[in-house]
Amino acid sequence: VARSALAMSTSLALVRATLVTMDPARRIVEGDLLVEGGRIAGIGGPFPDADTTIDAAGTLVVPGFVQAHVHLCQALFKGLAEETDLLFWLREKIWPLEAAHDTESIVASARLGLAEAIRNGTTTLFDMGTVRHTDGVAEAAVESGIRVVVGKALMDQGAGVPANLRDDTRTALAGAEAIVRRWHGAEDGRIRANLAPRFVLSCSRPLWEGVAALAEAHDVSIHTHLNESPGEVAEIESAIGAATVAWFDELGILSPRFVGAHGVWFSDAERALLAARGARIAHCPSANFKLASGACDVRALADAGVVVGLGADGAPCNNRIDPFAEMRLAGLVSRWLRKDRALSAADVVALATIDGARALRWDDEIGSLEVGKSADFVVVEQSGAAEAPLAGTDPYTALVYHSSAAAVRTVVCRGQVVSHRGRVRAWDDDAIVADAERRRVEVVRRAGLDALLARAGA
Ligand SMILES: [Zn+2]
Fold first, then answer.
1. What is the 8-class DSSP label of residue 397?
2. pLDDT tens readout for residues 346-397
3. Is 0.90 topped by the overall pTM?
4. How far apart are CA 407 and CA 424, in angstroms?
5. Biggest alpha carbon–alpha carbon distance for the chain
């Protein structure tokens, strides 16, 4: 798909495609996709009257991928916090680094993270952010051309929280509301905002109560971390004298607006309660394994009726923002945990597309290829050595197990090409990489962690 072709035409037909629709019947359609005015106007075809026709033979066309849990502010810290568990990773590395961000460094980080995500097929990204400089993340999101839900992380207490990341409760809530008022619905609806209380250990009860009230008042999502690692679960239970899920329910936190990242450690009763309240989970398998947190049983969540999306989490705990890497691992983890009750490859593609859209309550617009929805889609090459031979190959298996982000040809959001053959439209790669290198050194020095700049492994 040539960049100029889409931008200049009023209608476009992708022809001879294999459309992995992720519609309610999970139809695979061999045919054409018609795009008009940024929306999907037809599926199947033929559409001989389209202004522009592009041959998509030998590709799979899938809905744009939804990243349901990311920290764009951490893209700059990739590789600086290796080989630790969650709480040490946060307190000794990540929080001090986040505390040292300024606007220039956070913009550099967000551009770097977004460029990687977009190149790899992401068209919607649900961010946690950090406590400061949320406007910088949002401004990079505006430049990116994709859908981003920005959040100001909220922290008003907690061991190991740097002073610069801690607000008093009223300031935290006022700051969160200001972000919602400025960004929710911006750019013709492409930018949204969430409320991002970081996790129980860093947020007081009055802060949670305030978040519940703001979420309802503004009808925005609550984005937090939930039952990620055994150490975190144990610290929380001794801090609040209760299990998080039950405590959240008592405070009115759980609802369809709730998106809890990770959700590795639940009882059956907790899964049932999450489902009853309509709460959503963002499964982050790479981060769970890299931080040695555990293996989330998505089948158990799905059986209980919980909507689950898929996320990369922050760059330093993955270290990729890549839906293909996450899909493959989600499939493998589920196979290992549940054997013949494992998620199918189609279920895994759903996590990364329509179920992620549901988790963000954006499935009226995105998540599947259906007439009337936004033209957010990814063209994935299937004619390379990694994907061939094609005769009889199940498209879902091809996407989850043998394709990679290297097979992404074109990424389209709202009918606009945002990446083509590895080139992200919004920015010059060399410029954002050079800026990221410079800003990373500055942030690490401001954090007083200069030792991190000495190459490890010597
Ligand atoms: Zn996270």
1. H
2. 999 999 999 999 999 999 999 999 999 999 999 999 999 999 998 899 999 9
3. yes
4. 15
5. 66
Whole-number Å distance, alpha carbon 115 to ligand 1 midpoint, is 19
Tell me, in angstroms, the distance from the centre of ligand 1 to residue 293's CA.
12
Q: Report the alpha-carbon distance of residue 20 to residue 155 in Å, rounded.
A: 41
H or E segment to which residue 444 belongs: helix 429-446
Q: Indicate whether 439 pLDDT > 60.
A: yes
Q: How far, in Å, from the CA of 174 to the mean position of ligand 1?
A: 23
- pLDDT at residue 458 above 70? no
What percentage of the chain's residues is helix, strand, coil (to nearest 5)? 45, 20, 35
Distance 109 CA to ligand 1 centre (A): 15
Tokens of 109: 């980080």
Q: For residues 28 and 105, give the distance between their C-alpha atoms in angstroms, rounded to a whole number.
A: 43
Give me ligand 1 centre to Cα 130, in Å. 10
Rounded Cα gap, residues 141 and 106, in angstroms: 12
Q: Within a 10 A sphere around the Cβ of 355, how many other Cβ atoms?
A: 27
Kindly indicate the confidence band of residue 196, based on its pLDDT and cuts at 50, 70 and 90: very high
Q: How far apart are CA 244 and CA 250, in angstroms?
A: 10
Q: What is the 54 CA–ligand 1 centroid distance (Å)? A: 39
Question: What is the distance in A from the centroid of ligand 1 to the CA of 71?
Answer: 6
